[in-house]
Amino acid sequence: xxxxxxxxxxxxxxxxxxxxxxxxxxxxxxxxxxxxxxxxxxxxxxxxxxxxxxxxxxxxxxxxxxxxxxxxxxxxxxxxxxxxxxxxxxxxxxxxxxxxxxxxxxxxxxxxxxxxxxxxxxxxxxxxxxxxxxxxxxxxxxxxxxxxxxxxxxxxxxxxxxxxxxxxxxxxxxxxxxxxxxxxxxxxxxxxxxxxxxxxxxxxxxxxxxxxxxxxxxxxxxxxxxxxxxxxxxxxxxxxxxxxxxxxxxxxxxxxxxxxxxxxxxxxxxxxxxxxxxxxxxxxxxxxxxxxxxxxxxxxxxxxxxxxxxxxxxxxxxxxxxxxxxxxxxxxxxxxxxxxxxxxxxxxxxxxxxxxxxxxxxxxxxxxxxxxxxxxxxxxxxxxxxxxxxxxxxx
Length: 395
Ligand SMILES: *Cc1c(COP(=O)(O)O)cnc(C)c1O
Prior knowledge:
Layout (H helix, E strand, L loop, with lengths): L2 E2 L10 H11 L11 H21 L6 E4 L2 H18 L4 E5 L4 H12 L3 E5 L9 H7 L4 E5 L13 H11 L3 E4 L18 E5 L10 E5 L25 H16 L1 H19 L5 E3 L10 E6 L4 H10 L2 E2 L15 H5 L4 H4 L2 E5 L6 H20 L2 H8 L7
Parallel strand pairs: 1-11, 3-4, 3-5, 5-6, 6-7
Antiparallel strand pairs: 2-8, 7-8, 9-10, 10-12
Helix pairs in contact: 1-7, 2-7, 3-4, 8-12, 9-12
Bound molecules: pyridoxal-5'-phosphate.
């Protein structure tokens, strides 16, 4: 059985998204900037997509800028707010310890340029406290950037409260909503969000397309210089096919959100219930404030990477939730941020499921994971020491 349980990493392209993009890869290949009507067809498609995306977020179409993905949107939002702040002598930026690297690495770049960065604690439950944010805000704070839902553990932040506080203090608030868009309701007006990043491939559109919402009045700094596309704020011939697909996929995900959530939750709850029966395991992050599909657990005495390889042999695509892309052996910064010791953080497993998964697939995971964990423990010198009492159990 093949089970794709890594939807937080990327998703399959839906039929709706594929159908929406195909005309722009075949007959309608005009450049939206061309003056003849053939190009204007593409321009119209862009405008329609902008309206659709805006509607899904309760924004104005003029507040939507198409980008190459979530990373670019995060970069542009953060750099824009930093440049704007610096012009007013404000060089303090606030974020959290468990943001995506698109946010964290942009902040470190700015730190090297002389900005000061405060990263808020996310506590054991993976949720930022409003008091902590209040205490961190200064006269010279130029930006608060806090993610909607965490990509590794799935915890959801009190975005509306954060937005209200930032609005009251007149500090721009950027939200990396890449894991939330299409999966949870987002209302940029009601939540007082000034800038927000989304990425198509996390909700069944293709990779390489995303959007930045920037509230009217926000001054954007270009990351990509060139032509006057996206009202002069993002140069480069538009990815018309990708943008059309993203709009269609977002609309579909938002229309089906309740039904999808109703399908996903019982599968997720079964995973949590059955996998927590494994001795010395731990669920990571609050279950109360959580996106529907993400499950993150730790199993003591094993290495997450070995677990993933053995799950792969059983047809299961999962992730350790750590920065395995770089092949680094460092444990996940997210799991360390919620206070897990290094040894425990190494044995992590992220399963992220979506509406295309089935209960049969969940049962296959539930059958496989305990066997693999037992097998790996039987070969683990660390587990041996734990069993002999030469080492203390941490979970
Ligand atoms: C995937 C992801 C990103 C990056 O989006 P890309 O489109 O892949 O650049 C940023 N933030 C979060 C939370 C993500 O999950």
